[in-house]
Design brief:
It is built from 11 helices and 10 strands. The chain is of the alpha/beta class. It has an 8-stranded mixed β-sheet, sandwiched between helices. Strands 3-4 form a two-stranded parallel ribbon. Helix 4 runs parallel beside helix 5 and helix 6 crosses helix 8. Bound molecules: iron/sulfur cluster (SF4) (2 copies).
Amino acid sequence: MQKPEWLKVKVSQEELKMMQHFLKDMSLNTVCQSADCPNIGECFARKTATFMILGNVCTRGCRFCAVDKGCPQPPDKDEPKRVAEAAWRLGLKHVVVTCVTRDDLPDGGAYHFARTIEELKKIPGITIEVLVSDFGGNDQSIKTVVKAHPHVINHNVETVPRLYSMVRPQADYRRSLNLLKRVKELDDSIYTKSGIMVGLGETEQEVVDVMKDLRNIKCDMMTIGQYLRPSSKHIEVAEYVTPEQFDKYKKIGYDIGFKYVASGPLVRSSYHAGEAMNRL
Ligand code: SF4
Ligand code: SF4
């Protein structure tokens, strides 16, 4: 299927290379690179990135995702400090940290997240957003991250429940919702956020139902973006959703009570995340 004009973006090679060198020097991974994010040119030019901790090899095999799958290395104990140093050197006001899913670790990497949050908190005035895995539903892991008290805990439900077996077979819609629910139960001063990709064959009603499910568990923020196929091995795009339809989802999201909704073809869960914080 031909990509429509609204999905074509220009990338400045110079800015891209500078940031790539910086990240390589710091031995850090970003989801921007690992997931082939279409916004990489814009975000790297603004000296912003989403750090991906716990390696760049995932234990799951979601059929939409470009991150490598396999057996990951043990967590790098110095990585939390390097993430904080990179955030400080880039002068970030808001930092987003995500991870690969680590089903091989008993805590799913929660302790490593907590240590990263602790290091980032040493930077005066910075706000911290973590985009976590579902930790296999491990309640103790959720508690560990909540206790470290980032400003935002984000966990993407990614798609509508009907498509889970096709899109993310090792995940569970109710388990993902429960993680976001538990965060609010444990500490409602932490903002929660979630996101989905559209264009996978879902209906408008199914998207609205997901939005309502998220509001029912007091989720504060939501992102909606177009699914883009990373390669011919990945699941096909069913539809390129129009900008008008994205605007409609945004309006519905605000009408049902989200504090912030980003909805647009190129929206990703960390896209302009700092601006979202400023609007809360
Ligand atoms: S939208 Fe997020 S993942 Fe994409 S390039 Fe920007 S910071 Fe990275
Ligand atoms: S769990 Fe996350 S990183 Fe791993 S394959 Fe799925 S979307 Fe990609």
